[in-house]
Design brief:
Number of strands: 9
Number of helices: 8
Distance between the termini: 35 Å
Largest sheet: 5 strands, parallel
Helix content: 40-55%
Structural class: alpha/beta
Oligomer: single chain
Radius of gyration: 17 Å
Shape: globular
Strand order of the largest sheet: 4-5-8-3-9
Strand content: 15-25%
């Protein structure tokens, strides 16, 4: 991986990714993906000693995620807002498990050093700027990135007198490289604009992300 250096208040990298087309269109049948998500979601719930209930809302959510992963051609990011405890993290882990399965079965592969998709808590992502900059660079560049609980992290990090906005810089880079990014958050789309206070971030999320929410319709 090439060195990322600080220039004009931004993290810059000399690494150039081959741009990919919009949409993920994973190499698996739509029904297979939805079945896998169902069992992965169920397994995660039961692993945490909870009772799995297959509600109509969950069925619809799995259907929408499955469609996004296999037939969506416009968006290459998925934003899942919602209140605490409604299954967003569980769904995010089910998507991660699906991607790991596709890697292990040689249906998708990585060319930048990461064998598997990256799953990271937003708070951990932000503090990597100070604690492990190389790890932050790695998640900026990973092919598939899953961020859990966006909005729980500090908007700005100060380290060695330098001011960084971790999510702004990470999203800006992944937008330019068209790298698939899947996010869960307790924030609404409107909250995102208020928290990160950057019209460019709002515009790029609007272009980049499909929203899996029955209430949310737009980042604007």
């Amino acid at each position: 991986m090439e060195t990322i250096q600080r220039q004009d208040g931004k993290l810059q990298t000399t690494k150039t990714h081959q741009r990919i087309g919009r949409g993920l269109e994973l190499p698996l049948e739509n029904r297979e993906v939805k079945n896998f998500l169902y069992y992965a979601y169920k397994r995660e719930v039961e692993k945490r000693k909870r009772t799995f209930v297959f509600t109509d809302e969950l069925k619809e959510a799995i259907s929408k995620v499955g469609d996004f992963l296999t037939i969506e051609t416009n968006f290459y990011g998925l934003f899942m807002p919602g209140s605490i405890g409604n299954g967003k993290t569980t769904m995010l882990k089910a998507i991660r498990d699906l991607l790991v399965h596709l890697v292990d079965s040689n249906k998708i592969s990585y060319c930048e050093g990461d064998k598997y998709p990256r799953f990271v808590k937003a708070r951990d992502m932000a503090y990597m700027i100070h604690e492990d900059i190389n790890e932050f660079r790695a998640i900026m560049n990973t092919k598939f990135l899953l961020i859990d609980d966006l909005g729980a992290e500090p908007t700005e990090i100060v380290t060695y007198g330098m001011h960084y906005k971790p999510f702004n810089e990470l999203l800006d880079y992944r937008y330019e490289q068209m790298l698939p990014t899947i996010i869960s958050s307790n924030l609404t789309a409107i909250d995102i604009g208020q928290k990160y206070d950057d019209p460019r971030i709002v515009d790029r999320m609007h272009e980049m992300f499909d929203i899996l929410s029955f209430e949310e319709v737009s980042f604007r």
